[in-house]
Amino acid sequence: MIDMLGSALSSLFSVEEKEGVVSNVGYAFLSQAIALASSFVMSLIVPKVLGVAEYAHWQLFLFYAGYVAVTMLGVGDGLYLRLGGKRFFEIDGGVFKTEALIVSLSQICVALVVWMASLVVDMDSGFRFVLGSLLVYGLIQNFYGIVAPVFQAVNLTRIYSISIAMSKLVFLVLAVGVIASGSSQYEAFVLSYIAGMLCSLAYCLVCARKLLSVKRAPTSTVMKPLLADIRNGFRVMIAYYASTLIVGVARQIVVMKWGLEAFGQMSFAFSMVSFALVFIAQISLVLFPVLRRFDSEHLSASYAIIRDLLFVVSPLVYLLYLPASFVLGIWLPQYVESFRYLGILMPLLVFDGKMNMLCSTYFKVYNDTRQLLLFNVVALAISLLLSCIGAYVLGSVDFVVYGLLVAIMVRSVISERYLAMKRLHLGYLKMSLSECLTAASFVLSINAGGLVPLFAPLLVHTLSLLISKEAFDSACDVIKGRIMK
Predict the structure, then answer these.
(1) Smallest Cα–Cα separation from 456: which of 441, 435, 443?
(2) How far apart are the first and last CA of the chain?
(3) Is residue 126 within 8 Å of 187, Cβ to Cβ?
(4) How much of the chain is in helix, strand and coil states, percent to nearest 5?
(5) Could you tell me which residues come within 8 angstroms of residue 426 by beta carbon, excluding any fewer than 6 positions away?
(6) Closest of 34, 31, 38 to residue 193, by C-alpha
(7) Under the phi-then-psi rule, with left for phi > 0, alpha for psi from -120 to 50, and beta for the rest, what region is 395?
(8) pLDDT digit of tens for each residue in the chain (485 aa)?
(9) Which of 39, 326, 380, 482 is most buried by its number of CB atoms within 10 A?
(10) For the residues of 465-481, what is the DSSP string, one character each?
């Protein structure tokens, strides 16, 4: 029994690259199953326990927590790109250790400056607690953000997936405890969220012990790779934040124009979609180090296979809208206003999911970080423009949500066009147009009501599959192949 336990622990912290893509995706599935349970608590149980104002503060913490890594200046992303495709034993531990220490010390300095500056600003106690919590969370998250990319880059995504699962599991256990105690204070959920991230960091540090136990390299020898990581990673970081701000600016404008309660209603709808997008992003992390080792011919073939599979399967998520709305309406009647926003946001699962899993991954493989940044900034500009028009000209929250959806769709189409024509020399127009028409039919059917949102997108998607029969056959071959195995 002791030997079995020791073997399990040894495997848990092992940095040997034994797993293939399927096994790594399996770990991603496991971690996201736990993340799904965590998201269920955050999205469905927490708003039931908290009042609308308390829930809005909780959402405010989560919203700004997504931007704490901006003070890293892209170091983690640059490290991820520089090490992508290498083996763990090829990493220079001394250089990594010094780089990690420099970055960590810089984050402590930033946190201290921000907190001292906040002391001279008049703010209510709720917002001050959110700010203080964000600074603590930022230190933990950003230290994690310099260690975790190592495992992602060298195809040890198993470790990264376990760390995510650990974070979510700890939060889940603590959150259930808070709910069981009868607490209706958002502060307890914030502290539980931070504790989960701390456990995730501790696990990664143990796994990286071989890199961190070596002698530290001189600072002078580390500055060159550190500056290179900042230079290369900064574009990826800005591209990422531009991507998140496509939705973020719309949410912020809703806060400024209509207040926290409207923000809470919109955030509830977005939270229903976001956990699936996080799962898709996990799969892209599994793909990157593997694709980085492929030649151009294999890259093109892999892209076509993944693209066909997404084209066939992803629009089926529209069929979940009516059942989800019915169940949520019974469970959380106070958020019934959010269900229309949920319908409008459902196409994000198709277009943002494809962008994260396919386009962004291939941009990084080809090191096309400038194009990735450009397309995200274009989408951000569209979202900002349409959000301002919706809020300050038309006075319509619906228009704001429609605007961010249009921005996401435009980004997906132009990104796919660039990759298909400039890099992979594949067709794209027919499938992209079909996906846009299916999404439009679904969003328009939301206003019709009844069973129309169930049948309208299904009909359009069926016609699309008949027109693109080769993509359908390709996807079926992949699915049958997996089932046979």
Answers:
(1) 441
(2) 32
(3) no
(4) 85, 0, 15
(5) 300, 303, 304, 307, 420
(6) 38
(7) left
(8) 555 555 555 666 666 666 555 556 566 667 666 766 676 666 667 777 777 778 778 888 888 888 888 888 889 888 888 887 788 888 888 888 999 999 999 999 999 999 898 888 877 777 888 889 999 999 999 999 999 888 888 878 788 888 888 888 898 889 888 888 877 788 888 999 999 999 999 999 998 888 888 888 888 888 888 888 888 888 888 888 788 788 878 877 877 777 666 666 666 677 667 766 766 666 666 777 777 777 777 888 888 888 998 898 888 888 888 887 777 777 767 666 667 777 888 898 889 888 888 888 888 888 888 898 899 999 999 999 998 998 888 888 888 888 989 999 999 999 999 998 888 888 888 889 999 999 999 988 887 777 888 888 889 888 988 888 888 888 887 776 654 44
(9) 380
(10) HHHTHHHHHHHHHHHHH
Q: Which residues contact 390 (CB under 8 A, 6 or more apart)?
A: 253, 396, 397, 398, 399, 400, 402, 403
Cα separation, 440 vs 253, in Å, equals 24
The beta strand positions in 395-456, using DSSP E, are: none
Helical pair 157-180 and 125-153, crossing angle rounded to 10 deg: 150
CA distances from 225 to 155, 217, 232 (A): 21, 12, 10
> Could you identify the residue written with the tokens 């709720």?
126
Instruction: Please count the residues of the chain.
Output: 485
Kindly give, in sequence order, each residue whose CB lies less than 8 Å from that of residue 193, ignoring residues fewer than 6 positions away: 61, 62, 65, 137, 171
Let me know the angle formed at the C-alpha of 433 by 427 and 437, rounded to the nearest 5 degrees. 160
Cβ-in-10-Å burial (0-12, 13-18, 19+) of 393 comes to: exposed
Number of Cβ atoms within 10 Å of the Cβ of 62: 16
Q: Which pTM value belongs to this model?
A: 0.72
Of the CA atoms within 13 Å of residue 307, those in its CB half-sphere come to: 29
Q: For residue 469, count other CB atoms closer than 10 A to its CB.
A: 9
Identify which of 9, 136, 130, 10 has the alpha carbon closest to the alpha carbon of residue 59: 130
Q: Spell out the SS3 assignment of 307-375.
A: HHHHHHHHHHHHHHHHHHHHHHHHHCHHHCCHHHHHHHHCCHHHHHHHHHHHHHHHHHHCCCHHHHHHH
**SS3 category, 208:** coil
